[in-house]
TrEMBL record:
Keywords: Cell membrane, Membrane, Transmembrane, Transmembrane helix. PANTHER family: AMINO ACID TRANSPORTER, AMINO ACID TRANSPORTER-RELATED. The keyword Transmembrane helix applies. GO terms for molecular function: transmembrane transporter activity. This is Amino acid/polyamine/organocation transporter, APC superfamily. GO terms for cellular component: plasma membrane. It is a multi-pass membrane protein. Its main location: membrane.
Length: 470
């Protein structure tokens, strides 16, 4: 058995895990395009998106406070909606998204290395090295993951802020544009960009699978998500505000790499190299987080018999090494097959992200249902104002589903791929639960007795009666 004391990590690892999946190469593109589309007023869309994600953080913090386990949505959904919804939410909202996003991020790092540092090198080869390196880091245990993640996230955020400050102060040598901006020229139309801004914050809950490794999970999980959202908002605001001082809005809005354009305009070749390093840090941080968090979910599914037992096997460092290798292999398959190099990869990622929105809706529903079923269970964090934020959060997420992309043709393609993903996962989950597990699809699992010990005896009896009759 691994030494549990040595496997505990602190608050800044939790913050790094929260931020690590959010600030990715693709989100830097969304940030630049958002500021290019709206100018300074994009901050309004960003704040609206942050609020929606804050409500998501509230729900995940409450669920983690009741069940501080490493399975994340796997564990949270069993007592509320049963195994079927849990399997669908994890496989579509996390595994599928990670398959496309992780491999795309790895490929982006390869392209950056080629374009900025070594023109003769193969992007595919660089991507393969990145994936294998972070598979090995995560197999080695949470302590190495922690150290690597803190370094990567710190360098990434500090670099974004520094470039932005240099641009805002004019200290970089670049020539600012002789343009003045109306703060919000789009008026009420700015709210049409909330869906774009939403992706700047999505993934903050990736800290929850670390519950078993954190020293104080019931404190660090909600705190890290809130701190992470604040850090991201400030860093993105500073960089975006600097970008529009040096690059015309239409260039930013239509660029495939607006963050590179902005950094180059601010600092010249130095800025290009610096933002190239930031992109590599972002990719590395994303891969590191994905290869830590998703295997933890797969391990939990294996322990609940929702996947083959082999996915739950631990090595001497206490890591689910089979699940880590499995996810790394999926990334490599997509990289080597060049799927990540095609134009359709953005549609794949957005289709997976649509499924991510559905997972967030399920998280809110979990909170609402568990509030009704277990009103007296101890919650180390309780979302304020009853279920108000959950209802508002669900409403906002439904809005996201209908505004996933501004171009109607691309939007339909996203919906089509998302429906295919959901259909495959639904069929697999249905057959696995009915044939392999031989369980009802929506049979809920009662919360552990230890988790209910803070309830009054009559409430305990009431809950037992509910669970017996379901």
């Amino acid at each position: 058995m691994p030494n549990k004391i040595n496997n505990k990590v602190g608050l800044w690892t939790a913050v790094a895990a929260s931020v690590g999946i959010v600030v990715a190469s693709s989100t830097m593109v969304s940030l630049g395009q958002g500021y290019g589309s709206a100018g300074p007023g994009f901050i309004i869309a960003m704040v609206c998106a942050l609020i929606i994600n804050l409500f998501v953080a509230f729900s995940f913090a409450e669920l983690a406070g009741i069940m501080p386990k490493g399975g994340g949505m796997v564990q949270y959904t069993l007592p509320a909606l049963g195994p079927f919804i849990g399997m669908v939410s994890v496989l579509t909202g996390y595994v599928l998204v990670s398959m496309f996003a992780g491999s795309a991020e790895a490929y982006i790092a390869g392209v950056v290395v080629r374009d900025v540092f070594a023109p003769s090198i193969s992007p595919t080869l660089v991507s393969i090295v990145f994936v294998i390196a972070f598979v090995l880091v995560n197999i080695r245990g949470v302590q190495l993951f922690s150290k690597v993640q803190i370094v990567l996230t710190s360098l990434m955020i500090l670099s974004i802020v520094c470039i932005g400050v240099i641009g805002l102060t004019g200290a970089g040598g670049g020539e600012p544009l002789e343009t003045t901006f109306e703060f919000n020229a789009m008026g009420a139309g700015i709210f049409s960009l909330v869906a774009l801004a939403f992706w700047l914050f999505v993934g903050i809950e990736f800290v929850t699978p670390m519950a078993e490794e954190l020293r104080k999970p019931k404190v660090y999980i909600p705190l890290s998500m809130i701190l992470g959202l604040a850090i991201i908002l400030v860093a993105d605001f500073i960089f975006g505000s600097a970008a529009i001082r040096y690059v015309p809005l239409d260039v930013l809005a239509n660029s495939a790499s607006p963050h590179v354009d902005a950094s180059t305009a601010i600092l010249g070749r130095t800025g290009q190299i610096w933002i190239g390093l930031v992109t590599i840090f972002a990719t590395a941080s994303t891969l590191n987080t994905l290869l830590f968090a998703i295997p933890k979910m797969l391990r939990s599914m294996a322990e609940e018999r929702q996947l083959p037992k082999v996915f739950g096997n631990l090595n001497k460092w206490g890591m689910p090494w089979v699940s880590i290798v499995f996810m790394g292999a999926l990334f490599l398959i997509f990289v080597v097959s060049q799927v990540t190099a095609t134009a359709s990869i953005e549609i794949f990622i957005l289709a997976g992200s649509l499924c991510w929105c559905l997972t967030y809706i399920i998280a809110h529903l979990n909170v609402i249902i568990l509030r009704a079923k277990y009103p007296m269970v101890k919650r180390s964090f309780k979302s304020p104002l009853g279920i108000t934020f959950q209802v508002i959060g669900i409403t906002g997420l439904i809005y996201m589903l209908f505004n996933i992309y501004p171009d109607p043709v691309v939007k339909m393609q996203i919906y089509q791929f998302a429906l295919v993903f959901l259909a495959i996962v639904i069929v697999f989950s249905f057959l696995w639960i009915k044939v392999k597990m031989k369980r009802p699809l929506f049979e809920t699992t009662p919360l552990d007795t230890q988790e209910l010990k803070h309830e009054e005896p009559e409430v305990m009896d009431h809950q037992n009666n509910i669970n017996t009759n379901m």
